[in-house]
Amino acid sequence: MSKTAVITARLDTDTLDALDGLAAVQDRTRASLIERAVKRFVREETEFREFLGEGERAIDRGEFITQDQMVAEIDRWKRTRTSAL
To answer: I need a surface site. Which of 10, 11, 36, 55 has the fewest CB within 10 A?
Structure first.
Protein backbone atom coordinates (compact mmCIF):
# COMPACT_ATOMS: atom_id res chain seq x y z
CA MET A 1 0.00 0.00 0.00
CA SER A 2 1.34 3.42 -0.86
CA LYS A 3 2.01 5.98 1.82
CA THR A 4 -0.38 8.87 2.19
CA ALA A 5 -0.15 12.29 3.80
CA VAL A 6 -2.74 14.63 5.17
CA ILE A 7 -2.87 18.12 3.66
CA THR A 8 -4.94 21.18 4.48
CA ALA A 9 -6.63 23.39 1.92
CA ARG A 10 -9.00 26.32 2.19
CA LEU A 11 -12.17 26.36 0.08
CA ASP A 12 -14.92 28.91 0.00
CA THR A 13 -18.23 27.68 1.39
CA ASP A 14 -19.96 27.53 -2.01
CA THR A 15 -17.27 25.23 -3.39
CA LEU A 16 -17.30 23.12 -0.24
CA ASP A 17 -21.09 22.79 -0.40
CA ALA A 18 -20.88 21.76 -4.07
CA LEU A 19 -18.16 19.24 -3.22
CA ASP A 20 -20.28 17.76 -0.46
CA GLY A 21 -23.23 17.56 -2.86
CA LEU A 22 -21.13 15.68 -5.39
CA ALA A 23 -19.83 13.37 -2.70
CA ALA A 24 -23.36 12.56 -1.61
CA VAL A 25 -24.60 11.92 -5.15
CA GLN A 26 -21.61 9.70 -5.92
CA ASP A 27 -21.71 7.98 -2.54
CA ARG A 28 -18.09 8.94 -1.96
CA THR A 29 -16.26 10.81 0.74
CA ARG A 30 -15.18 14.39 0.39
CA ALA A 31 -11.58 13.18 0.76
CA SER A 32 -11.88 10.67 -2.07
CA LEU A 33 -13.20 13.33 -4.46
CA ILE A 34 -10.42 15.73 -3.47
CA GLU A 35 -7.82 13.00 -3.96
CA ARG A 36 -9.22 12.23 -7.42
CA ALA A 37 -9.27 15.93 -8.35
CA VAL A 38 -5.69 16.49 -7.21
CA LYS A 39 -4.46 13.40 -9.08
CA ARG A 40 -6.20 14.60 -12.25
CA PHE A 41 -4.73 18.09 -11.86
CA VAL A 42 -1.20 16.74 -11.33
CA ARG A 43 -1.50 14.39 -14.33
CA GLU A 44 -2.85 17.10 -16.65
CA GLU A 45 -0.31 19.70 -15.55
CA THR A 46 2.53 17.21 -15.95
CA GLU A 47 1.36 16.28 -19.45
CA PHE A 48 0.99 19.95 -20.38
CA ARG A 49 4.49 20.78 -19.15
CA GLU A 50 5.87 17.82 -21.14
CA PHE A 51 4.01 19.12 -24.22
CA LEU A 52 5.51 22.59 -23.76
CA GLY A 53 8.95 21.07 -23.24
CA GLU A 54 8.68 19.16 -26.51
CA GLY A 55 7.76 22.41 -28.26
CA GLU A 56 10.77 24.14 -26.78
CA ARG A 57 13.01 21.27 -27.85
CA ALA A 58 11.56 21.48 -31.39
CA ILE A 59 12.36 25.19 -31.47
CA ASP A 60 15.92 24.46 -30.31
CA ARG A 61 16.22 21.98 -33.21
CA GLY A 62 14.95 24.66 -35.62
CA GLU A 63 11.68 22.80 -36.28
CA PHE A 64 9.26 25.71 -36.43
CA ILE A 65 7.79 28.31 -38.74
CA THR A 66 7.32 32.00 -38.02
CA GLN A 67 3.97 33.70 -37.67
CA ASP A 68 4.51 35.40 -41.05
CA GLN A 69 5.14 32.00 -42.65
CA MET A 70 1.98 30.61 -41.05
CA VAL A 71 -0.12 33.55 -42.27
CA ALA A 72 1.27 33.10 -45.78
CA GLU A 73 0.46 29.38 -45.68
CA ILE A 74 -3.12 30.06 -44.54
CA ASP A 75 -3.53 32.66 -47.28
CA ARG A 76 -2.30 30.12 -49.87
CA TRP A 77 -4.71 27.53 -48.49
CA LYS A 78 -7.62 30.01 -48.66
CA ARG A 79 -6.79 30.90 -52.27
CA THR A 80 -6.64 27.22 -53.20
CA ARG A 81 -9.98 26.53 -51.54
CA THR A 82 -11.62 29.58 -53.14
CA SER A 83 -10.36 28.76 -56.64
CA ALA A 84 -11.58 25.16 -56.29
CA LEU A 85 -15.17 26.37 -55.79
So the answer is: 10
> Mind listing the pLDDT tens digit of every residue in the chain (85 residues)?
689 999 999 999 999 999 999 999 999 999 999 999 999 999 999 999 999 999 999 999 999 999 999 999 999 999 988 877 6
Q: Which DSSP state fits 32?
A: H
Alpha-carbon distance values, 34 to 6, 18, 37 (Å): 12, 12, 5
| Residues whose CB falls within 8 Å of the CB of residue 20, separated by 6 or more in sequence, listed in order | 30
Report the predicted TM-score, pTM, of the whole model to 2 decimal places: 0.72
- Residue 35 and residue 2: Cα distance in Å, rounded? 14
Q: Give the dihedral sign, CA 48/53/54/59.
A: positive
